[in-house]
Amino acid sequence: MTKSTATLTPAYRDLHRLMSLMTGDEKHGPAATSTLDALWVLYDRVLRVTPETVDAPDRDRFLLSKGHGPMAYYAVLAAHGFFGEELLAGFGSYDSPLGHHPDRLLVPGAEIGSGSLGHGLPLAVGTALGLRAQGLTGPRVWVLTGDAELDEGSNHEAIAYAGPAGLDQLHTVVIDNASASYGRPGGIADRFATAGWSVASVDGRDHEALYGAFTAPHPGQPRAVVARVAAKA
Q1: In the chain, what's the furthest Cα-to-Cα distance?
Q2: Sign of torsion, CA 77 64 114 33?
Q3: Spatial separation of the C-alpha atoms in residues 48 and 45, rounded to whole Å
């Protein structure tokens, strides 16, 4: 029987082994690997959520908007004990809870069902507003999107709203693997900054740079971190 990762200390070096267990047909290879480092740093050093606190009101919320190609997400969740690694081998099969798009009702630790692009950031805005309305100022809301996903109109509206609303509990990580069809004057970072966000742009494979950008103070402003990765990643 495969030993559950819940009993092990998570280590970054183990992620590639965990991903190799998922032999199902992955339709989005670059998406499956480009998010790996950002997800690892978030779950290992930043997010205040564990398998024991997934339902706690004061937990941090992480929303995977870039839900196509979720292999890295599953590997990181397994490494941190949200479910046993024995589930990884069934990835993409008919009777596996680990589908090609995560399902929040099937995947332990998943906050939303995702894969239909453009939903995650608006949901994160709503989550931050809901926490504010309840007086829960401690939990942070994180959402991971892709650069091409920002072409969706729903994301335009979410970005334009969150800055003036001062949603400083909201954090967006944009994986920029140069897959967007349309360029933007000034680039992705300027787009968020113009809308009143606190912004950083870093190497998406550099763990210390990611950690520094994720944890920098940004009072009164939502935070956007653009994580640049090679287009082939």
Answers
A1: 54
A2: negative
A3: 9
Instruction: Look at the chain and count its residues.
Output: 233
SS (H, E, C) 91-113: CCCCCCCCCCCCCCCCCCCCCCC
For 173, list phi and psi in degrees, rounded to 5: -110, 120
Residue with tokens 């994720």: 214
Q: Which residue has the tokens 């992620």?
A: 15
217: exposed, middle or buried (Cβ count in 10 Å: 0-12, 13-18, 19+) = exposed
* pLDDT tens, residue by residue, 190-219: 999 999 999 999 999 999 999 999 999 999
Alpha-carbon span 148 to 181, nearest angstrom: 7
Tracing tokens 């990884």 back to the chain, one arrives at 88
Return the percentage of the chain with pLDDT > 70, whole number: 88
Q: Please give the single-letter amino acid code of residue 85.
A: E
Residues β-bridged to residue 172: 143, 224
Q: What angle do CA 138, 63, 56 make, to 5 degrees?
A: 45
Q: What percent of the chain has pLDDT over 90?
A: 73
Phi/psi for 170 (5° steps) reads -95, 135
Is 141 in contact with 127 (CB distance < 8 Å)?
yes
Of the candidates 71, 137, 79, 81, which has an alpha carbon nearest to the alpha carbon of residue 102? 71
Show the tokens assigned to 206.
């550099």
